[in-house]
Automatic annotation (TrEMBL):
Domain SLBB, chain residue ranges per copy: 159-234
Domain Polysaccharide export protein N-terminal: 79-151
Subcellular location: Cell outer membrane
Domain Capsule biosynthesis GfcC-like C-terminal residues, every copy: 897-972
The protein's name in its UniProt record: Sugar transporter
Mode of membrane association: Multi-pass membrane protein
Record keywords, A-Z: Cell outer membrane, Ion transport, Lipoprotein, Membrane, Palmitate, Polysaccharide transport, Porin, Signal, Sugar transport, Transmembrane, Transmembrane beta strand, Transport
Annotated Soluble ligand binding domain residues: 241-292, 667-708, 752-788
Keyword Protein transport: no
Pfam family, one: Poly_export
Domain of life of the source: Bacteria
Family the entry assigns: Belongs to the BexD/CtrA/VexA family.
Length: 991
C-alpha cells in the first residue's frame, strides 16, 4: 500500500501509528546499546583494582537489537492452563448437526454470551475448564455436536515498570507476558539497577524477583505471568563482589536480596567454577575506611567473608618453587617464604604470624622426600617454638601447618567418633581427611584406632556435628596423624575430647591449656608422648579441677581454671579480654547441671558486667559466649520463621539454641537511626545504649522525640526526650520497640531544573515554600534574549495525572467497543480500526505535564499571587524570543512558519497548505506561548481576527465523526482535542 506524500506526513504526525513508536524505541535501544558498550563506573572501578577487565553479570540479557513488540502480538497455540480474562476473544467452532464458527469476546462482567445458551463465566477460569463447561452446555442444547474452542486474540494488560530501567512508565503487554517481558519492553535494567532485588507488587503483596535465577536455572520469578495493574520496581544496584582469576566467567556479581556477605565457594560457583579443577588460593581485596586496600587470604571457603566492594582473587595453590618453605593453616599470611631468611622453625613462625584462636600445643611439619616423593609429618610443640625452647632446622620444601581450636574440635566430632566406634559409613560430602581415616581403620582392624583404649573410651563421648575444616580437605593425612598424637581429656573440661600434643612438653601444654595447674598432676598419670608415638592406655587425662571456657569474640578464647568465687567480671578481666567489636548488650552463659544433665542459658550484658553493675559467680563447666556486632546484625537480619533458624546460624558458627535465644531477646529499633533492626538485650537496657548499637540517631532524626512501645506486661506507649535527664534514664526490655521520629525536612529531597535563557542554568536545591521568582533570581535572572511569555513549566505529578487520564480514555474506548459487540450492534472494520488506533495513541503518548505559569519577574513582583510554589523534579525552560508560528494537526503541510506581525490564523493555515478532509475546523484552537489554549473561529463568514503572537501554535484537530458510533461520542471531541494539545506541547519541547 502506497501513500501520497501529503497523506504520509499527516499520517506520521498525528495518527501516531505504533510502528512509528516502535522505530523510535528501536532507535533509542541502539543508542542505549552504544552507551552500554562503554564500561559503567562500577566496571571501571573494579577493573582498575583487579588489573583485568570485569563486566557486570546478567545485563547482557537486555542487550537486544530488535525493537520490542508493541500492540497486539500474533499468538500461537494457547495452552489449556491459560487463565481467561476480560477482553480475550475466543473462536467457538461447532461440528455435527450444527456447523458454525463464531468469535466471542469476554465482556466487562467476565462472561461469554453465546447464542441460545445461558451466559457462561469465563473470567478467572482456565481455557480447559471453560472448554469442558461449554461442551456440556452445547451438548445439553444440541445433540451430536462437537465443540472446539481456541483463543484468537489475547487481552492487553497494563503494567507499571519503575526504577532503573531504560524507559520507565506504563507498559502495554499481552496477558501471557512475564516479568522478563515487561523489563525488555521497558528498555531493560540499566547497569545502575539491581538484578536480584526487583520487586513485583501485586495489590498489597510484594515479591522479590531475582534475574540470576533465570540465567542459572531458566526459571524463577522472572518467568511468572503478569496481571493487569501489576507494578515492577527495579531498585538501585545492591552490594557487589567481583571475582577474578582462572574461573569460567570472571565478572562483577550482585549479592542476593537480604545477603550482605558471601563465601568464596558461593562466589566461585556464581563465576561458573574453576577453569582447571584444583585447589586454589583465595585472596580477598577489601577497602579500608580510609580508602586504602587490604589484602588477606581466605582459608575457609564456606565462611561469609566477602562483602560489598570486595574482589575475590583466585590463584592456583600449588606453586613449584625452589628455595622456599611454607607456612600454612591458621596464620595471617599463609604461603611460601624464602628459606634463606627462614632456616629454622623459630625464624619461620612467631606470635605476629598467628591468627586469633590458634592451637599452641601442637603443629605439624610436612616434609617431602625428593627421591621418593613421599610426604611425612612430624609433631611440633608450637608453644615451645614460640617461647624459644624448641627449634628445628628446615629443609627446602618443608611446610609448617598451624591448627586452630576449631580444627582440633573436629577430632571429637560425631563423624570421627562414629569411625572410631566401628561405623564404616561416611557422611554425605565427607572431606578427604575422613576418607583417609576410614581407610586407615579398615586397613588395620586390630590397630589402635580400631581397638585401642582411647577408641574404646571414645564410645562415652558425644561429638558435635560441625563440618570438616578445610585443613583436613587440603591435607587429608593430617586427620589421622593428629589423632595419633592426641591424648583424651575426659573430665574437668567444658568439652571433653582428643587434644593433639607434641612430646612430653606438649602434654604439659595441653594440661595448662585445659586449666591444669603446673604444680598439680592429673588424676591419672600422663605418659610422655614422643612425636612418633601411637595411642596408648596411659594417654587419658581425668581432671577434677573446676574450669570455665571463654568462646567467641574474646582475645584469647579457651579453657580457664576456675578459682573459688571467680566472677564473670573477673573472667572478662574487667573488659580487657574482650575484642574490639564485641556486642555489648547481650552475651550468654551456657551452664549444665551435672546431676540432671539439663542445660540452662543465662543472658547477661557484657557492658553492665564490665561496669560492675550486673556481675555473677561462675560455676564449674560454664561456657561464656561473646558475640561480635557483625554477627548480631547478620543473625537478626534473618529472623526465624516458626521454629526454623536463619540460614546464617551455621555460617556464623553459633549454637542454634543460643541463636534462638538472641532472637527471642530482641528489641526492635526503627525510624531515623542509621541501622534499624532487631537488637538483643539481656534484660532492661537503657534506650540510649540500644540506639547507640543501631548506629545512633541519623541526621534526619529528632532525639527529643523518641517513641517507646512496651510489649511486655501492660502494653503501653510513651515518648521521651533523649536530650534531657529523664530520657537518658529510660529503659526498654525484651519485646519492646523503639522508634526515633524524624524531623520535618525543610529542604525538598530532590532538585528542580531551570534551563534556557537564564544566566546560571542548572539544577537547584529548593526549600519548602520556595517560589518560581526566587529560583529565577538564584539562577542570575533572565538574559536579554529571554522570552518569559513562552516559559515551559512541567511537573511530574501533572504528567502522571495526565498519563493516567489518557489511559482511562483508552480503556473506555476499548470497553465501548466490547459493549457494542456484546449487544450485537453492527460495527464496520474501518470504524473499529479508527477507534483502536485512537486508543493506541492515547496509551502511547507521554504527556510532558505542562502547567501554565507566569515567569516574568516584573509581573511576579506586581502580582505575587501568580508566583507558583515549586515542587521536587519541576522542569522550567525559558526560551529565546521566537520568530516563528507553528501550524500542526490536520493540515496538508504542517510546518514552522515565519512570524509576521498582523498575520491572522487563516493566513498561517493557508501557508500550511490548508486543512485536510479529516480536519474539524470548528474545534481549532490557538496555543499561546505560555501554554494557554484559545478557540479559533475559522469560517468564510467569520470576520473575528485573533492575534497570533510569535511562538504560538495553531492546532487543527481531526474530525470526530469516525468515532460517532461509540457510546462516549459526546466526549470524543474533548479527548481528541486534549490529544492534539499534548502533541503540540511535545512539539514545543522538541524545539
Amino acid at each position: 500500500m502506497f501513500f501520497a506524500a501529503r497523506e504520509l506526513r499527516v499520517f506520521a504526525a498525528y495518527a501516531a501509528p505504533m510502528w512509528v513508536y516502535a522505530c523510535i524505541i528501536w532507535g533509542l535501544g541502539l543508542i542505549g546499546q552504544a552507551a552500554a558498550a562503554s564500561p559503567s563506573p562500577i566496571e571501571q572501578a573494579y577493573s582498575t583494582r583487579a588489573g583485568s577487565e570485569l563486566k557486570q553479570f546478567g545485563y547482557e540479557l537486555f542487550a537486544t537489537k530488535s525493537p520490542p513488540a508493541q500492540g497486539r502480538e500474533p499468538i500461537g497455540a494457547v495452552h489449556g492452563d491459560y487463565v481467561l480474562g476480560v477482553g480475550d476473544e475466543l473462536a467457538v467452532t461447532l461440528r455435527g448437526q450444527i456447523n458454525s464458527t463464531r468469535r466471542y469476546r469476554v465482556d466487562g462482567d467476565g462472561r461469554l454470551l453465546i447464542d441460545e445458551l445461558r451466559p457462561l463465566r469465563a473470567d478467572g477460569r482456565t481455557l480447559d475448564e471453560f472448554r469442558r463447561e461449554l461442551a456440556i452446555a452445547i451438548s445439553a442444547a444440541h445433540l451430536d455436536v462437537e465443540t472446539f474452542v481456541s483463543v484468537t486474540e489475547i487481552r492487553q494488560i497494563g503494567v507499571l515498570v519503575l526504577g532503573a530501567v531504560g524507559r520507565p512508565g506504563r507498559q502495554e503487554l499481552i496477558s501471557q507476558a512475564t516479568v522478563f517481558d515487561a523489563l525488555i519492553v521497558a528498555g531493560g535494567v540499566t547497569r545502575s539497577g539491581s538484578l536480584r532485588r526487583i520487586k513485583l507488587l501485586r495489590g498489597a503483596t510484594e515479591r522479590v524477583v531475582d534475574v540470576y535465577e533465570l540465567v542459572q536455572t531458566g526459571g524463577g520469578g522472572t518467568t511468572e505471568r503478569l496481571r493487569d495493574g501489576d507494578r515492577i520496581l527495579v531498585p538501585p544496584l545492591g552490594p557487589t563482589v567481583a571475582v577474578a582469576g582462572p574461573v569460567k566467567h570472571p565478572g562483577i556479581f550482585e549479592l542476593p536480596a537480604g545477603v550482605d556477605r558471601a563465601s568464596v565457594a558461593a562466589m566461585r560457583d556464581l563465576a561458573g567454577g574453576l577453569i582447571r579443577p584444583a585447589t586454589q588460593q583465595a585472596m580477598r581485596l577489601g577497602l579500608k575506611a580510609d580508602g586504602g586496600e587490604l589484602a588477606e587470604e581466605v582459608r575457609d571457603s564456606t565462611a561469609p567473608l566477602l562483602g560489598d566492594g570486595d574482589i575475590l582473587m583466585l590463584a592456583p595453590l600449588r606453586e613449584d618453587r625452589q628455595g622456599v618453605v611454607r607456612l600454612e593453616g591458621h596464620v595471617l599470611r599463609p604461603g611460601p617464604r624464602s628459606i634463606r631468611d627462614n632456616r629454622t622453625l623459630i625464624d619461620l613462625v612467631g606470635e605476629r604470624d598467628l591468627r586469633p584462636g590458634h592451637y599452641r600445643p601442637f603443629a605439624a611439619l610436612a616434609s617431602t622426600d625428593r627421591a621418593t616423593g613421599m610426604t611425612t609429618h612430624t609433631a611440633i610443640d608450637l608453644a615451645g617454638v614460640l617461647d624459644g625452647r624448641t627449634d628445628r632446622r628446615l629443609a627446602e620444601g618443608d611446610t609448617l601447618i598451624i591448627f586452630s581450636t576449631a580444627d582440633v574440635d573436629f577430632l571429637t566430632s560425631d563423624a570421627v567418633l562414629r569411625l572410631l566406634r566401628g561405623d564404616r559409613s561416611l557422611p554425605e560430602g565427607a572431606c578427604r581427611g575422613l576418607v583417609v581415616l576410614a581407610r586407615t581403620i579398615a586397613g588395620s582392624p586390630d590397630g589402635p584406632f580400631a581397638r585401642g583404649p582411647q577408641a574404646q573410651a571414645a564410645a562415652e563421648l558425644t561429638g558435635s556435628r560441625q563440618p570438616c575444616p578445610p585443613i583436613f580437605d587440603e591435607n587429608p593425612d593430617l586427620l589421622a596423624f593428629a589423632l595419633q598424637q592426641s591424648v583424651l581429656v575426659r573430665s574437668g573440661v567444658t568439652r571433653p575430647g582428643f587434644f593433639p600434643v607434641a612430646g612430653k612438653a606438649g602434654t604439659q601444654a595441653i594440661a595448662r591449656s585445659t586449666g591444669q595447674a603446673r604444680d598439680k598432676p592429673a588424676t591419672r598419670a600422663v605418659a610422655a608422648i614422643e612425636p612418633e608415638g601411637s595411642l596408648g592406655r596411659d594417654d587419658i587425662m581425668d581432671r577434677a579441677e573446676p574450669v570455665f571456657e571463654l568462646i567467641g569474640h574474646v582475645r584469647f578464647p579457651g579453657v580457664r581454671r576456675l578459682a573459688g568465687g571467680t566472677t564473670l567480671r573477673a573472667a572478662l578481666e574487667q573488659g580487657r579480654a574482650l575484642r574490639d567489636g564485641v556486642y555489648p548488650l547481650m552475651g550468654v552463659i551456657e551452664r549444665v547441671n551435672r546431676r540432671s544433665l539439663s542445660q540452662t542459658l543465662i543472658a547477661f550484658s557484657p557492658q553492665e558486667v564490665v561496669r560492675g553493675r550486673a556481675d555473677r559467680v561462675l560455676e564449674d563447666g560454664d561456657r561464656v559466649h561473646l558475640i561480635a556486632r557483625t554477627h548480631i546484625r547478620l543473625l537478626t537480619a534473618h529472623p526465624p520463621a516458626h521454629d526454623s533458624l536463619p540460614p546464617s546460624v551455621e555460617e556464623l558458627g553459633l549454637d542454634p539454641l543460643i541463636a534462638s535465644l538472641l532472637n527471642e531477646h530482641a528489641v526492635q529499633v526503627r525510624g531515623a537511626v542509621r541501622q534499624p533492626g532487631a537488637y538483643p538485650v539481656a534484660d532492661r537496657t537503657a534506650v540510649e545504649s540500644v540506639i547507640t548499637e543501631a548506629g545512633g540517631v541519623s541526621a534526619s532524626g529528632d532525639p527529643a522525640s523518641v517513641e517507646l512501645t512496651f510489649g511486655s506486661g501492660a502494653t503501653r506507649r510513651e515518648t521521651i526526650d533523649l536530650t534531657k535527664a529523664d530520657g537518658q534514664r529510660a529503659f526498654v526490655g525484651i519485646g519492646d520497640a523503639v522508634r526515633v521520629n524524624p524531623t520535618f525536612a525543610r529542604m525538598e529531597p530532590r532538585t528542580v531544573n531551570i534551563v534556557g535563557e537564564v544566566r546560571r542554568p542548572g539544577r537547584y536545591d529548593v526549600l519548602r515554600g520556595e517560589r518560581l521568582s526566587a529560583l529565577i533570581a538564584r539562577a542570575g535572572g533572565l538574559t536579554d534574549d529571554a522570552y518569559p511569555a513562552g516559559a515551559f513549566f512541567s511537573r511530574e505529578s501533572e504528567r502522571r495525572r495526565k498519563k493516567e487520564e489518557f489511559n482511562n480514555h483508552a480503556r473506555a474506548i476499548d470497553a465501548a467497543i466490547v459493549r457494542l459487540r456484546q449487544k450485537g450492534e453492527p460495527i464496520r472494520d474501518e470504524q473499529e480500526s479508527h477507534a483502536r488506533q485512537l486508543a493506541a495513541e492515547l496509551r502511547g503518548i507521554d504527556p510532558p505535564g505542562r502547567i501554565v505559569v507566569e515567569a516574568d519577574p516584573i509581573v511576579l513582583r506586581k502580582r505575587p499571587e501568580l508566583d507558583i510554589l515549586l515542587e521536587a523534579d519541576d522542569q522550567i525552560v525559558i526560551p529565546k524570543r521566537p520568530l516563528t508560528v507553528v501550524v500542526s494537526g490536520e493540515l496538508m503541510a504542517p510546518a514552522a512558519l515565519q512570524f509576521v506581525s498582523g498575520k491572522t490564523a487563516d493566513d498561517y493555515i493557508h501557508e500550511g497548505g490548508g486543512t485536510t478532509r479529516d480536519a474539524d475546523t470548528g474545534r481549532s484552537f490557538l496555543v499561546l506561548p505560555d501554554g494557554r489554549a484559545e478557540p479559533l473561529s475559522i469560517s468564510s463568514w467569520n470576520h473575528t481576527v485573533t492575534a497570533v503572537p510569535p511562538g504560538a501554535m495553531i492546532v487543527i484537530p481531526r474530525d470526530v465523526r469516525p468515532y460517532g458510533f461509540l457510546e462516549l461520542a459526546k466526549d470524543i471531541g474533548g479527548i481528541v482535542s486534549q490529544l492534539a494539545l499534548t502533541a503540540a506541547s511535545i512539539t514545543v519541547i522538541s524545539r
